[in-house]
Amino acid sequence: MGLEKLVIRGQKRLKGEVTVSGAKNAAVAILPAAILTDGDCEIENIPDILDISILKTIMIGLGAKIQYPNNSSMKISTTNINAYTATDKQIGKLRASYYLMGALLGKFKKAVVTFPGGCDFGVRPIDQHIKGFEALGAKVEIEHGEVNINAHRLIGAPIYLDVVSVGATINIILAAVKAEGITTIENAAKEPHIVDLANFLNAMGADIKGAGTDVIKIRGVKELKGGHAYSIIPDQIEAGTFMIAAAATHGDVLVKNVIPKHMESLTAKLQEMNVRVEEYDDSIRVFCKDKLQKVNVKTLPYPGFPTDLQPPATVLLCRSEGTSTITEGVWDNRFQYIDELKRMGANIKVEGRMAVIEGPVRLSGAPIRALDLRAGAAMVIAGLIAQGETTVSNIECIDRGYEKLEEKLKALGADIRRSTKE
Ligand code: EPU
């Protein structure tokens, strides 16, 4: 699998319709959240991606029973889970495995979980997660690459996050949902997948208010039941990736199964660049006829411009007239992929947390590497606009989070194929 590459012959305009899958970052929280319930949960609109199959294997290892009514749904029964230790080799591979901490702690008041892995873009601390668990009364020790968490009782508490963290917000919700009394998270993250997780838990009987604002209030409940089916929201980042790819290839694409509200920061920037964006109830059409204008972008927690669209946006800005800048406001070091773009002729300078992009530049095809999930998507978009042939290696990273990316692009007219040969 590691030898697979995507081979792209560029300069084809993307045209047609594409349907976005369920949100990865919601699914990787909602599956572990099912551990907290005492009945069967049926979860729909789950993306078929590598991160989910790893998570599924981990959950089965813990004792969960998982059935597939169809390709994008799972019926999960967690009543047989009796282990609070998740230290399988697989776990280190998956950043989101940290949600097993909150979920197992919430269920058993104990958890032993391998320190999380995931994409490498600078230090990825979990101090805010730990601070939250401790505030609820748990003791946390990190030893031999494992996080060991233990509580006699979990008691609701006020928690102020020093940094806006998606992971810490979700983990604290998971740990607090069955705690005694009330937990408030202040300076909470507001991403759509946090709202989705809270909606899922509330549907199972939790009492969570304020998700989507920066103060979340969780009143602990004794029991969460399984029960009716829950459908995961569409993937904001996958939708954004297709919107950017449509603009970058000067195409005309209807992106279906999106929540236009989630796309507002991107839509605004695309319009500022001269890209046409039409919003419908649950789809967005992106097309482009004019020259692209330079813009300045800064990534921020939601509702700001998403950091996960920063690498694809950089590729798009290579086509804009003039000097654009992108400032990374979330991660310390998320510009490593720019060296790959330079091999294709991009004119980009990185100054600390800012990338300065001179355009327009005609990229030329080259062998390049996907350094992480979203950088990988950016490399694919670069291949789509470049002259000649681009081969993207290390695509396992892309498979972690994009469902059938090359098939969806092919259906839009891209010349892209997966190759196992050199
Ligand atoms: N941070 C801390 N302490 C913590 C936690 C985070 O200092 O305890 C800092 C981080 O170093 C970073 C910032 O806070 O500078 C934000 O990190 P956050 O915790 O929000 O990130 P995350 O939960 O680890 C999720 C997504 C990422 C996405 C970020 C930001 C999942 C599984 N991952 O990561 O998605 O970039 O939020 O939106 O939900 C991706 O999908 O490709 C991806 C990397």
Main beta sheet strand tally, sense and closure: 4 strands, mixed
Number of strands: 24
Structural class: alpha/beta
What is the residue-mean pLDDT, rounded to a whole number? 95
- What fraction of the residues are assigned to beta strands by DSSP? 25-35%
Low-confidence stretches: none
- Helix percent reads 25-40%
Order the strands across the largest sheet as they lie in space.
22-23-1-24
Q: Judging from the principal axes of the Cα atoms, what is the shape?
A: globular
Q: What's the Cα radius of gyration?
A: 21 Å
What's the total helix number? 13
Please report the distance between the alpha carbons of the first and last residues.
13 Å
The ligands found in this model are: uridine-diphosphate-2(N-acetylglucosaminyl) butyric acid
Walk me through this protein's architecture.
The chain is an alpha/beta fold and 422 residues long. The protein is 30% helix and 26% strand. It has 13 helices and 24 strands. A four-stranded mixed β-sheet has the order 22-23-1-24, covered by helices on one side. Strands 2-15-17-16 form a four-stranded mixed β-sheet. Strands 4-5-3-14 form a four-stranded mixed β-sheet, covered by helices on one side. Strand 22, helix 11 (373-385) and strand 23 form a beta-alpha-beta unit. The chain is globular, with a radius of gyration of 21 Å. Bound molecules: uridine-diphosphate-2(N-acetylglucosaminyl) butyric acid. Uridine-diphosphate-2(N-acetylglucosaminyl) butyric acid binds at residues 25, 28, 95-96, 119, 124-129, 163, 165-168, 189, 307-308, 330-331, 373-374, 401.
